[in-house]
Design a protein that fits this description.
With 281 residues, the protein is an alpha/beta fold. The chain folds into two domains: 2-38, no CATH class; 69-280, Collagenase (Catalytic Domain) (3-Layer(aba) Sandwich). 37% of the residues lie in helices and 20% in strands. The chain contains eight helices and 13 strands. The protein has helices at 2-5, 13-27, 29-38, 41-67, 138-154, 209-224, 255-264, 276-280; strands at 73-74, 77-84, 87-94, 108-110, 119-121, 128-132, 162-164, 173-176, 188-192, 198-203, 226-229, 253-254, 271-273. The strands form five sheets. The protein has a five-stranded mixed sheet, with helices on one face. The protein has a two-stranded antiparallel ribbon with strand order 1-12. Strand 9 and strand 10 (198-203) form a beta hairpin. Helix 5 crosses helix 6 (209-224). The longest helix has 27 residues, at 41-67. The relative contact order is 0.15.
Length: 281
Amino acid sequence: MNDSYDHNPQKSPTSEGADSQAQGGASSSQPRKEMRYGWLKPVIKPALFLAAGALFVVGLAVYANKLSDRPAVYQGTIETNKLLGHAKIPAVARLQPQRFPRQRPADYEMWTTESGRLRRVRTVDLPLRVYSNDRSQKRLVERAITVWNQAGATVGMSREFFREVDDPGKADFTIDWSGRGLPDNAAGIARLGSGSVIRGIALRKNAADTKLAEVLLQELGHILGLEHSGNRDDIMAPTVHAHRHASIAYVELTTRDVSALWWLYNQTDYVAIVPLRSVRR
């Protein structure tokens, strides 16, 4: 290499040393460029390892959600409970409260009047006071009320939808667990009387608690003015779900249910669903 840079064979040793420095400078220009990024080399492998690990975790979460009996549900939390071997592994993902479509979902009906007008409860009549005639079902009632009240807060309601009371004389409607008056093929029914006055909810206790919780959730949704959804995964679907929940704590609304609720309670042209206390006055 010295020959390639030695353009003056008569140079003194001093000048040759100078040439050696110049040669070194020229030949080290590429290594310097490499050294500029050389610090990345010890970082690349750990970074790739961490990225692969993150992708694996995300993929595992997506897979767990696909295994769920219901698509993404909404109450601020997605919760699934999968049996892996003999261990129960909860997979939890947090959602931001504002993240739901602010529009009426497709194929989602409202409980309209015979003339086709929307029905919903006026804000001034909330909360509706609920009495359950079977105290053994208290946990189910509390869960269903909590779910709808949380959904109401999510869509911007200033008052709770429901509040449980212990005195039937102070209730706006009763949840009757005897099954009286239910059609043979019905798990539950919500009733409105003349003038859209709430007449109550009837349920049949012939299923597991998680199933009953879903049925009660749906009937309370009818009281609020929602009808049926064409999506079988929604709580407001017309048939009992085949979902398997670890407990009633995992029974939730879907994003479509919440969107429908938001849409209905942002309408101003409607017929009021009337609580019983308004009739008693």
